[in-house]
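Re: folding output
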Amino acid sequence: MKWLLLLPFILQAFVVAIDEFYFHWKRGLPLWERIGHPLDVCTLLACFGWVVTQPYSENALMVYAGLTVFSCLFVTKDEWLHARLCGPGEQWIHSLLFLLQPAALISAGVIWAMAPEAGAASHSALQQSAAELYPILSLQVVLQGVFLAYQILYWGFLRKFHIKAAPAPLQNFESASAQTA
């Protein structure tokens, strides 16, 4: 059970690293991404910060659900621009991130909700796993904060954007099929 709850965090970190340190470093980031990506991380920080600082309750869960839905929708804001700027590999990595972000946030919510109160007498396997993984939520706040600082410092001050030649703009299906006929 523990690995099932932990897996989304591990996979998300791995895929984010590929996106950032391969694709972004390779093509550079324009201003809108240098601003937008730290804002994406801020939405995740709001989610993880909530579960770390608030005791679980039905009302707190409703706020968390709202934060997670907002975060998951917010990160899609750039995809219409990415369609013109990014190649298929980076697009695929983004699609994985769109799957992994809600999975990680659901896992965080389960850990938060199921971690037993200190001193509780008996625990189910899920509660035991959640209790053991609860420190991961604080670690997520720290890691997301470090990643936010890196993005601001690296893309804002150390490396100004130098965009490599972008792939040719995508054509619509009708004009592409007309050219091949």
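--- second protein (sequence, then structure) ---
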Amino acid sequence: MAEDNSKHVTYITGFIYDASDRFLLIRKNKGPSTVIGKLTGIGGKVEEQDFFHTDAMDREIREELGEDFKFDWTTLGMVEYEGYFINVIFYAKVENIYNLDGKTVPSKNDIGEKFEIHHANDIICHEECGLGVKSIVALLVWENPETDRIEVTRYKKDG
């Protein structure tokens, strides 16, 4: 019997950081319940018109930030979740996160999701993800109210 690919969805997530290890994150108010209210990278679903995954990243950046920024995306890897959706993870380093191509990052996108800039020193990465600028990507980023710091954890599947 042929595999049903109708439920297979590919997402992309991009993390932008600068020479001072500051990350541009977005506080999600839309998407899967695992990301609502959480900080994560910018991204979304790969659409039919996206020839390459980097095309999808460029489109998502344009949709989210409202500008046609071009970043030099590096693929970190792919994470598959329970065999039905894949997240392709990218990162891009810029000179100054506060000044992207001479433009200031907006405070929020058109659906009210806020952009936040956080320094890597304010991010705690749990043991399973291995802290490092590149390893922060592909991870669910969330705030721990007990420590007032941002913590990073891999998405986990049940079992």
